[in-house]
Amino acid sequence: QVQLAESGGGLVQPGGSLGLSCASSGILFRFYVTRWYRQAPGKERELVASITRTGVTNYVDSVKGRFTISRDNAKNMVYLQMNSLKPEDTAVYYCNVEGVHWGQGTQVTVSS
Hints:
Elements lengths: L2 E5 L2 E3 L5 E8 L8 E6 L6 E6 L5 E3 L7 E6 L4 E6 L8 E7 L3 E2 L3 E5 L2
Parallel strand pairs: 2-11
Antiparallel strand pairs: 1-3, 3-8, 4-5, 4-9, 5-6, 7-8, 9-10, 9-11
């Protein structure tokens, strides 16, 4: 049974940084595409970033240059480093593998 668990969310001021982590049991990230999504209140879930098996990364335009997705194969972890955060980044952030497996989400709130 595959389980994903996100962590690292919290409250941060505009311009600040947060690092999210996604841990897995039952699946090895290095064999799959892993994505970070987010969902703000009243909005649809949005793809934020992805990383392929070979480490190719992609980002939604609104986070390019500010967010970095990465993977540690030895630890079987996927990360999302978020810098220069804006209030519009406020959302629940979810880790996803191959469009099938989802974590429970972690809340990120950007506010002064």
